[in-house]
C-alpha cells in the first residue's frame, strides 16, 4: 500500500425508532438544515459546513440507560454540544423536546436526553 488513503468523517448516524421525529428535534435544537430525507433516514448539515448528523429508523431500537447499569442497554456514543450559557441552552433544549437527566455528574456540564433517549451533554465553550 502506498500510504493512507483519503478518509474523512462525513456524518455521525444515530439509530432511533423514528428518524424524522429525531431529526426534527436536532434540526430545531441546532438550527441545521435537512440535506437529504428518505423514508427511514434523514441527514442534517450545519449551514457553515462540517460533519453531518444523520438519523436512521431501526424497528428494534432500545434507548440506552443513563447512567449506565450492568445488564441494561448501554450508550455507544453521546454528543457534546458547546454552548455559551448552560441555563439558557438547557431551557431551550427542554422546550425543543429534550429531558434533563436525573443524574448530573458535573456542575459545569448538563446531561440531557433527546426524544429517543440518547444522552447528550451541554458544556460551556
Can you put this structure into words, describing what you see?
By secondary structure, the protein is α/β, with parallel strands linked by helices. It is 18% helix and 33% strand. It has two helices and eight strands, in the order βαββββαβββ. The protein has helices at 19-30, 86-96; strands spanning 11-16, 33-38, 41-45, 52-57, 79-83, 99-100, 109-113, 119-124. The strands form two sheets. It has a four-stranded mixed β-sheet, with helices on one face. Strands 5-8-7-6 form a four-stranded mixed β-sheet, with helices on one face. It is globular and about 50 Å long. The termini are far apart. Pfam families: Glyoxalase_6. Residues 8-125 form the VOC domain.
The strand line-up of the biggest sheet is 1-4-3-2
Helices and strands, in order, run as EHEEEEHEEE
Strand proportion? 25-35%
CATH topology grouping of the largest domain: 2,3-Dihydroxybiphenyl 1,2-Dioxygenase, domain 1
Low-confidence runs (pLDDT<50, min 5 residues)? none
> Averaged pLDDT, please?
95
Radius of gyration: 16 Å
Secondary structure class reads alpha/beta
Total count of strands: 8
Shape: globular
* C-alpha end-to-end distance: 41 Å
Main CATH class of the largest domain: Alpha Beta
| CATH architecture descriptor of the largest domain | Roll
The structural domain count equals: 2
- The CATH superfamily of the largest domain is identified as 2,3-Dihydroxybiphenyl 1,2-Dioxygenase, domain 1
Q: Determine the number of helices (DSSP H or I, runs of at least 4 residues).
A: 2
For the sheet with most strands, the description reads:
4 strands, mixed
- Relative helix content: 10-25%
Domain VOC: 8-125
Protein name: VOC family protein
Pfam families: Glyoxalase_6
InterPro entries: Glyas_Bleomycin-R_OHBP_Dase, Glyoxalase_6, VOC_core
Amino acid at each position: 500500500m502506498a500510504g493512507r488513503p483519503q478518509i474523512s468523517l462525513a456524518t455521525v448516524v444515530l439509530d432511533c425508532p423514528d428518524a424524522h421525529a429525531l431529526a426534527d428535534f436536532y434540526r430545531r435544537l441546532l438550527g441545521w438544515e435537512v440535506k437529504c430525507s428518505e423514508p427511514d433516514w434523514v441527514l442534517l448539515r450545519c449551514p457553515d459546513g462540517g460533519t453531518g448528523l444523520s438519523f436512521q429508523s431501526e424497528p428494534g431500537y432500545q434507548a440506552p440507560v443513563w447512567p449506565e447499569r450492568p445488564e441494561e442497554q448501554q450508550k455507544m456514543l453521546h454528543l457534546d454540544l458547546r454552548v455559551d450559557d448552560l441555563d439558557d441552552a438547557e431551557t431551550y433544549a427542554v422546550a425543543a423536546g429534550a429531558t434533563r437527566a436525573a443524574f448530573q455528574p458535573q456542575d459545569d456540564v448538563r446531561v440531557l436526553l433527546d426524544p429517543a433517549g440518547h444522552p447528550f451533554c451541554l458544556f460551556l465553550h
